Amino acid sequence: MSETSGFLERPGGERLAWRRVAGNGPAVVWLGGFRSDMAGTKAQALAEWALATGHAYVRFDYFAHGESSGDFAQGTITRWREDALAVLDELVDGPAVLIGSSMGGWISCLTALAAPERVKALVLVAPAPDFTAKLMTPEIPAEGWADLEANGVWYRPSLYGDPYPITRNLLEDGARWSILDSEIPIAAPVRILQGGEDPDVPWRHALELAQAIKSQDLVFTLIKDGDHRLSRPQDIARLIAAVEEVA
């Protein structure tokens, strides 16, 4: 058994990079975070698990992420949601288990809401629903708002590398996909792993998501000393255990 790779052709000539392990279902589908990619520690660990166990697995890079084409400044929640739905339609047979990390947790929820018949369960790691409005917007400094007003873009400093563009279009589009203001009608099983020392997604934000989701088959795990990435060996072990439980 091996992992294959390729590209999905998308509107406008853009291409989504993907990797897939053919195996027993339901397929586990990795949805990464904002400015993350499918070569990260957790995504790679799941690929190794799939190869070892014979489980079907798909990982991909959103528009303007990783190996996929596109200008990151043109990215929106709408576009990345469409990418996830395209992957389900074209690369997955039958129901899938969605594994969403950070922004991928939000995209996973939006995907489950759009195609509930295709989603068997969700495993969410430090999920960041509504992050554009609830986590990012309150932290934009005065000079950032001035840049957004004048140029439509602000370059936000990052703990993980070079500053990156936050556009007015991203913020306005993200507000249209808010899910935390009412009950979220997801009935599938949900497992949430959240670090108590996460500097990017406060654990109370992830708990708010857990409380809003309709499903009664939901387990929220607080890893008190965990950070945002939850990529330590013990965190990876918890992730794989959660995936095995629902898959």
Structure, explained:
Residues 49-238 form the AB hydrolase-1 domain. It catalyses: S-hexadecanoyl-L-cysteinyl-[protein] + H2O = L-cysteinyl-[protein] + hexadecanoate + H(+); mycophenolic acid O-acyl-beta-D-glucuronide + H2O = mycophenolate + D-glucuronate + H(+). It is an enzyme of class 3 (hydrolase). Its EC number is 3.1.1.93, 3.1.2.22. This protein is of the alpha/beta class and 247 residues long. 36% of the residues lie in helices and 27% in strands. It has a single domain (3-130, 181-246), classed as Alpha/Beta hydrolase fold, catalytic domain (Rossmann fold, 3-Layer(aba) Sandwich). The strands form 2 sheets. It has an 8-stranded mixed beta sheet with strand order 1-2-4-3-5-6-9-10, sandwiched between helices. Helix 2 (77-91) packs across helix 3 (103-114). The longest helix has 15 residues, at 77-91. The protein is globular, with a radius of gyration of 17 Å. The chain starts with a strand and ends with a helix. 40% of the residues are buried.
Enumerate the strands of the largest sheet in spatial order, edge to edge or round the barrel: 1-2-4-3-5-6-9-10
Give the helix level as a range of percent.
Answer: 25-40%
Largest sheet: 8 strands, mixed
Distance between the termini: 19 Å
Figure out the total of helices.
Answer: 8
Low-confidence stretches: none
Find the count of extended strands (DSSP E, 2+ residues).
10
Question: In the residues, how many domains can be counted?
Answer: 1
The level 1 CATH classification is Alpha Beta
What's the Cα radius of gyration? Answer: 17 Å
- Supply the helix-strand structural class: alpha/beta
> What percentage of amino acids are in beta strands?
25-35%
If you average the pLDDT, what whole number results?
A: 97
CATH fold group: Rossmann fold
Order of helices and strands: EEEHEHEHEHHEEHEHEH
Q: Which CATH architecture would you pick?
A: 3-Layer(aba) Sandwich
The H-level CATH homologous superfamily, spelled out, is: Alpha/Beta hydrolase fold, catalytic domain
What is the general shape? globular
GO molecular function, one term: mycophenolic acid acyl-glucuronide esterase activity
Protein name: Palmitoyl-protein thioesterase ABHD10, mitochondrial
Enzyme class: hydrolase
EC number: 3.1.1.93, 3.1.2.22
